[in-house]
Amino acid sequence: MGLSALPSPSTSISSRRLTNRMTNRYSVNAMYSLAAEQDIDIEDDLARAQKRLRDLKSRISAQSKKNFVLERDVRYLDSRIALLIQNKIAAEEKKEVADALEDIVEDDGSHMDEKRMGMYSNLFFLLQSEPRHVASLCRLVSLAEIDTLLQSVMFTLFGNQYEQREEHLLLTMFQSVLSAQFETTSEFGSLLRANTPVSRMMTTYTRRGPGQSYLKGVLAERINSLIEHKDLNLEINPLKVYEQMVLQIEEDTGALPASLPRGVAPEAAANNADVQAIIVPRLTMLMEIANTFLSTIIDSMESVPYGIRWICKQIRSLTRRKYPDASDASICSLIGGFFFLRFINPAIVTPQAYMLVDGVPAKHPRRTLTLIAKMLQNLANKPSYAKEQYMMSLNPFVETNKVRMNQFLNNLCEVGDFYESLELDQYMALSKKDLSINITLNELYNTHGLLVQHAEVLSPSDKAHLRTLLDDLGPAPAQVPRKENRSMELPLYSRWETPIQELSTALMSDSVTQNDINYMEAKSIFVQLLRSIPSIAAKRPIDLPALAERAATSKDPVLVRRGIKVQNLLSELDIAGVIDKADDYKIMQDEVAAEMVHLGNTKEKVVLETRSLEAVYKTICDHNNYLRSQLEQYKAYLQNVRLVTTKEKGAGSGGVGVVTVNGKEKKQIKTTVLGPYRFTHSQFEKEGIIMDSNVPDNRRINIYFNLTSPAPGTFIIALHFKGREKPILEMDLKTDDLLEKQKDNQASLDLEYVQLNVGKILALFNKLFSKRR
């Protein structure tokens, strides 16, 4: 089902009609409700609560976009710095990498002339209100181009994640993209599985504010309660269990019996009786934990964001149409492929990346979370044990819960469509004067360039609106350097649609009478008056004539205007026989009272939603800080690289000395040695730098660490015991090595007695040393 077209410019406003799918009374009522919501004159508790909520949602949307950009930057710098570490990047490219860290500057758009700004305003209004163009573009671009386009689509064009019209337009675009994906995919098994622009779009959509809110509300408590048990080892891979068992025996006894050789084959490990005895109770516990996760997720169905459920619904609908013989289980595996593979499981496996936990979980709970995610994925999809035979031992979990899981996935799809309300929203958009998007110059130019590049496919007719706008704009400007990539507020308006000036006139049609209009307008004004004069809002029954008179004789000109208007409307409706003065206008009295009760409930919901979203906003800000700390590490690294390069060039004048580290002589460029800086075991624990410690509790008070930097990018950690002159252990580290560990998702640095958090120790090095060089 597509969207109805907006009124054409040739049609007069008075003769425009709303679609027959909507009842007349609903349409008129909804119009006035929407109009009342936008009334800025009312300043009651509800209006203030709604404003706070709107502001909070706006901040979440803006912050989500910043995080998306930062995540993309981190991915880019990961790959570039990996090359830098391996000395495969040219010297002139180092500046290019450093320039990628420049922040975007806010701007008012004054650098662009008014005529060109107007053309872009028209173009982006068209792209937003007719999502089919964006849907086609997303299918045409390459995988290398999709992230930049997704930034513009998900976080700019439809960036207001809690604004119903934008959300529904974005979902309409998803429907077009998914439909095309189903049309062009020849094999059922490959549907939605490959890493394509479409799958990247779907993943990005789940990372927006509502998705983050759901994950935090549903998974955070469950994951945090699990990771508290740092020593709970639930490894079930026989080979790993065997290796761990052998190490433990050797540590306990000082020797290994001949019956337990090192490096056995997986089959030998699986057949070992002791290994089997260790694994059996772990399987039971894993299934119990997985069941609690599954129950939590199933019980949370009503909290799943509407958009994610609607995408599930489209997957089911498109599959049934394309493959009418597909079994329910096969269809559910596709739905599960989206809901679990791209939404739920990434948050379970890496909860720190979703800010569901503080810091990286310890080794054992991290492995448990990975196993839980595998179990849920095997349950949602058809299990495949080709690579991990040991997972077959968990088949009872799959068999017991398969029916339950499929029922949940089907229930996810049971949501209503939004086409009628979207049509109403689109219609109302023509009366709005404040539609706008916040966009950077490079987003503007990049989208423009992609549209021009694919104009023949997107708009074959040279008379179509899109082609007209692109022809007027001409070629897209080149991308500007990042430090010049200013952010601007771009107003959106249509070149062809006539703005709606008067609701009453706009709603008139053969089937909507003037009496219908008058009744709903009177009701709307009475609700506004009660909200503006709270001292009489609680009195029942509501004396409508007295309320109108109170407003008409007040000193507030807005209230006076409304009071006189509603007095006239009451009189007209009484004469027309729609309401009766003799019974104190009881019909309207009851409806106004009911609306006030509804608004009271609305206020409670607004307050609750605000509390919930404040937690989401904090999470998103925390994630932003985490990403910024990563970028700071890259900045420090690049600074060190430049320092080392400079010193190496000048090293010929005898600036080279010899230093002994861990008993080995090394040539070193003459530079200032920084440190040592001393930290106690408890300080490192408190800061989360120590992930795990083998030091007995009663000895930790005597343990401390000395941190030294003999040269840029080089650090020494020395582990000391009070009273001993020499360190127990010393480790020589390079920034390169730590960054590479991060890139390979190795969270811990093993110092034999303690395991340190790689990210946090790197951040500490940067804090202590980078600004002192």
From TrEMBL:
<dbReference type="InterPro" id="IPR008936">
    <property type="entry name" value="Rho_GTPase_activation_prot"/>
</dbReference>
<dbReference type="Pfam" id="PF03836">
    <property type="entry name" value="RasGAP_C"/>
</dbReference>
<dbReference type="InterPro" id="IPR001936">
    <property type="entry name" value="RasGAP_dom"/>
</dbReference>
<feature type="domain" description="Ras-GAP">
    <location>
        <begin position="165"/>
        <end position="381"/>
    </location>
</feature>
<dbReference type="InterPro" id="IPR000593">
    <property type="entry name" value="RasGAP_C"/>
</dbReference>
<keyword id="KW-0175">Coiled coil</keyword>
<feature type="coiled-coil region">
    <location>
        <begin position="39"/>
        <end position="66"/>
    </location>
</feature>
<dbReference type="GO" id="GO:0005096">
    <property type="term" value="F:GTPase activator activity"/>
</dbReference>
<protein>
    <submittedName>
        <fullName>Rho GTPase activation protein</fullName>
    </submittedName>
</protein>
<dbReference type="InterPro" id="IPR023152">
    <property type="entry name" value="RasGAP_CS"/>
</dbReference>
<dbReference type="GO" id="GO:0046580">
    <property type="term" value="P:negative regulation of Ras protein signal transduction"/>
</dbReference>
<dbReference type="Pfam" id="PF00616">
    <property type="entry name" value="RasGAP"/>
</dbReference>
<dbReference type="GO" id="GO:0005938">
    <property type="term" value="C:cell cortex"/>
</dbReference>
